[in-house]
Specification:
Length: about 280
């Protein structure tokens, strides 16, 4: 949708909150103006600013899928003043929403391809709408492999959806943690090791990854070892964003700004930005 004034937040109300992990909350947010709510269109990978009045605003990936008149969802990890204030909001409380901004995962271009989605920790947040979009249009894509890692079982962000993901046709969900607990019967392994073991074919495939830098580093090495080319590997660098406005210069990749030119890039694009003199 076109924004009349991109600097003015829309008023919104918290509909509900869900504690996803000890430090991540899902905020379900309803835009107050029905006309804006009905025309607020966005795609997986785009972000919006949430403002806790009196505390400030910060950019967050939108983790829901666009459906007419639906609530917007954000997975907010508590890491500072704004996110603490957002965590304290309760149903009925008011906040501001500005967006949507940024580019998105070009899922239409991936029709017919096998999809490998790899996420670590809160890095699963921008991948959740990607997975749900693929499942919503399941026949448009080939096999779907999701590898989701976290430090502990409690840190796996979208547990309430695992059953749905696991039961979807031609879909494989592999969960792994760095450290299990007495209830955990799954894998205890690092994401790159799980990827190496599963060894998905690069043929007609796209890999989308998001997670901590150390995970990305070693996962990229495995993907390349499996034969994935740079234009088959896609990521979102949304975690690099701070102001989200092109002003703080803290999100640069080469001479590009993640908040202005991204946050979604192929590895091929990132390599080109870094090579530019
Ligand atoms: S996040 Fe500040 S310039 Fe991009």
């Amino acid at each position: 949708m076109g924004l009349e004034n991109p600097f003015l937040p829309y008023l919104a109300t918290i509909k509900s909150t869900v504690e996803l992990t000890p430090d991540v909350k899902l905020l379900r947010v309803e835009l107050e103006d029905a006309a804006i709510r009905g025309s607020f269109d966005y795609k997986p990978g785009q972000f919006a600013f949430l403002s806790a009045f009196g505390e400030g605003e910060a950019p967050f990936g939108i983790v829901s899928l666009p459906r007419h008149q639906d609530d917007l969802e954000f997975a907010v990890r508590q890491i500072g003043t704004v996110t603490r204030a957002l965590h304290e909001l309760e149903p009925g409380d008011t906040l501001g929403v500005r967006g949507p901004f940024g580019n998105y995962f070009p899922l239409e271009d991936y029709a017919g391809k096998n999809m490998v989605i790899i996420g670590g920790g809160i890095g699963m947040a921008p991948l959740r709408p990607v997975i749900n979009k693929i499942l919503e249009q399941r026949d448009n894509y080939g096999n779907l492999l999701v590898i989701n890692g976290a430090r502990t079982p409690q840190d796996l962000v979208f547990r309430p959806e695992f059953q749905t993901w696991m039961e979807a046709p031609r879909t494989q969900l592999e969960l792994t943690v760095d450290r299990g607990d007495e209830h955990w019967g799954g894998r205890v392994a690092l994401v790159p090791d799980v990827l190496r073991e599963l060894a998905p074919s690069p043929d007609n495939a796209i890999a989308i990854i998001c997670g901590p830098p150390i995970m990305i580093h070693f996962t990229l090495a495995v993907l390349k070892g499996l034969g994935f080319k740079d234009d088959q590997i896609v990521t979102t660098l949304e975690a690099k964003m701070k102001c989200g406005l092109g002003k703080c210069a803290r999100c640069n990749v080469g001479d590009k700004y993640v908040c202005q030119d991204g946050p979604v890039f192929t590895l091929e694009q990132i390599s080109q930005f870094l090579e530019q003199p």
